[in-house]
Design goal:
alpha/beta; four-stranded parallel sheet; two-stranded parallel ribbon; 7 helices; 6 strands; globular
């Protein structure tokens, strides 16, 4: 349990280590918690330390203009924006394998919630502080991720002193779908190594 003042995290020795995980936007927020000293370890899936990037950094993230257009589009034609975004989540082979059936249906989130999430992606920046994160970090990233490009995982690896990257070839933005056991086994081994 995390209290508003973070007291539960400060006294976690009583409860054991705190491992924080996050996917995509959740990974960015997990990094923020680690920067505040609340994590003994991180598990980041399809994550980045800064989502919006310049045109020259398209291999690391998306242009802010595109994210702003998505925000406007959600108000004008939410179904169209969600449909296009969802197509980017998985590779063609992953869609054909039926992994898309595991995704929540379109309309699962309110428009204000989606816009708030996009606003966080536009404004949150942890990249400049990565060297301050000294806890172990387990990264899981697909090489064909079109939301948080694979280059963002390589950037995290270069910036985080105790990071380990589990690369999944030919995989999109939801590396855990259809690979739950494989990732869980790798994660368990990694965490066990951290405890030795």
């Amino acid at each position: 349990m995390l209290y508003l003042d973070g007291e539960a995290c400060r006294t976690r020795a009583f409860h054991g280590p705190l491992l924080i995980g996050g996917w995509s936007l959740g990974g960015l927020l997990a990094l923020r918690l680690a920067l505040q000293g609340f994590a003994d370890g991180l598990v980041l899936l399809g994550a980045t330390a800064r989502f919006t990037r310049s045109k020259e950094e398209s291999d690391l993230g998306w242009a802010d203009l595109y994210v702003r257009k998505m925000m406007t589009g959600l108000v004008q034609n939410r179904q169209d924006v969600e449909t296009k975004f969802r197509q980017l989540l998985l590779t063609e082979a992953e869609w054909e394998a039926g992994l898309g059936e595991s995704l929540p249906p379109i309309g699962s989130w309110t428009t204000p919630a989606l816009i708030a999430g996009l606003q966080i992606l536009r404004s949150e920046e942890c990249l400049s502080q990565m060297k301050s994160i000294t806890c172990p970090v387990f990264l899981v990233h697909g090489t064909e991720d079109r939301i948080c490009p694979y280059g963002a995982a390589l950037e995290l690896m270069a910036q985080l002193p105790q990071a380990k990257l589990f690369t999944i070839p030919a995989c999109g933005h939801a590396p855990f779908l259809g690979r739950e056991d494989q990732i869980a086994n790798k994660l368990r081994r990694w965490w066990h190594e951290q405890q030795d």
